[in-house]
Amino acid sequence: MxxxxxxxxxxxxxxxxxxxxxxxxxxxxxxxxxxxxxxxYTWPLFIPLSLSFLWNLANIIxxxxxxxxxxxxxxxxxxxxxxxxxxxxxxxxxxxxIEAVSFVSDYYGYxxxxxxxxxxxxxxxxxxxxxxxAEIAVGAAAMATLVFVFTxxxxxxxxxxxxxxxxxxxxxxxxxxxxxxxxxxGPMVLQTDAVQGV
Length: 198
Description:
This protein has helices at about 1-5, 15-35, 40, 45-65, 70-100, 135-170, 195; strands at about 105-115, 120-125. By secondary structure, it is mainly alpha-helical.
């Protein structure tokens, strides 16, 4: 596959990243379906879930078809924007979904009166709002929370790869494949005499 042929400097564990992005794409798809079924409560989630879906899909396609995957800096920037939008919308969505599920509504309707033993009109209380998708809204919020967690994990991973990428661009002697290249030595090497002489 393309990500085995040519990787940018600093790229680590390409298969694991592909699996993680694919799993995030699956969770995002489920989250979008649940959001569509309970749009009255979860409409703010549509924005970050759509962004996540498009970015992960583009990233996977690029990783499988292009000569090189997306550079780490692009992953850092886009994943950061997506999880910041998630933070802004998840709090509102969780509050809205929990309020909808725990809402007590009074109603007047035709029902069976067990005390009197016959059907008739009367007042009562009903907990939750299941008919309008409140329980589905909780599921959508939970799915979006999982997507948020995976997005943050991918962002942190991209930050580490970005650091490696910048280091190996600055000191190419450490790249693997070059005669004597040892690979990424770690951040502390920047302070040693070996790097200062490069």
